[in-house]
Amino acid sequence: MSLDALKNAMPDYAKDTKLNLGSVIGTSTLPKQQVWGAALACAVTSRSAEVLREIDAAAREHLTEEARGAALSAASIMAMNNVYYRGKHLIGDPEYANLPARLRMQVIAKPGVDKVDFELWCLAVSAITGCGVCLQSHEKTLRSSGVSRETVHEALRIASVIHAAAVTLDAESVLSVSV
């Protein structure tokens, strides 16, 4: 399986998504580990079995097992954190900020890969789930670590295209059955 298989699965109406998969992932200026770690973490977050299978197969060609595990960890920990921090924020009561999370998050301190890569993957996942608190936190950490806005922007582009592919292919699987 490959990125080409995922692109070829796109229906005609999703030509832009198909082309973006090739350009955003295939020709990214980011190092391969950052690209494929972000793509894998976002594929998990997209909840599309087809997208996850294809991206994981392609990512295995570019990631060590340790980096693959860290990308999966980013998706897992952010699934929890995005709900928790977005929920606290959306309630709108500032007193919730004084309450400790009391949730285990040790992987963030020791992800098994360069901290910048892990933070970038967490940011990409947070873009898909729409947690503004987490987006701001991870962007601030990345920028204070010397990461450029262009790098953050690339991660957002990857997240958006992976999510679009997942939405499209999941819709196609439902629509093709109902016809």
From TrEMBL:
What reaction gets catalysed by this protein? Answer: N(6)-[(R)-dihydrolipoyl]-L-lysyl-[lipoyl-carrier protein] + a hydroperoxide = N(6)-[(R)-lipoyl]-L-lysyl-[lipoyl-carrier protein] + an alcohol + H2O
An example GO BP is: response to oxidative stress
Q: What is this protein called?
A: Alkyl hydroperoxide reductase AhpD
List the Pfam families.
Answer: CMD (PF02627)
Which EC number applies?
Answer: 1.11.1.28
Q: List the disulfide bonds.
A: C131-C134
Enumerate the UniProt keywords alphabetically: Antioxidant, Disulfide bond, Oxidoreductase, Peroxidase, Redox-active center
Looking at its record, which EC class is this enzyme?
oxidoreductase
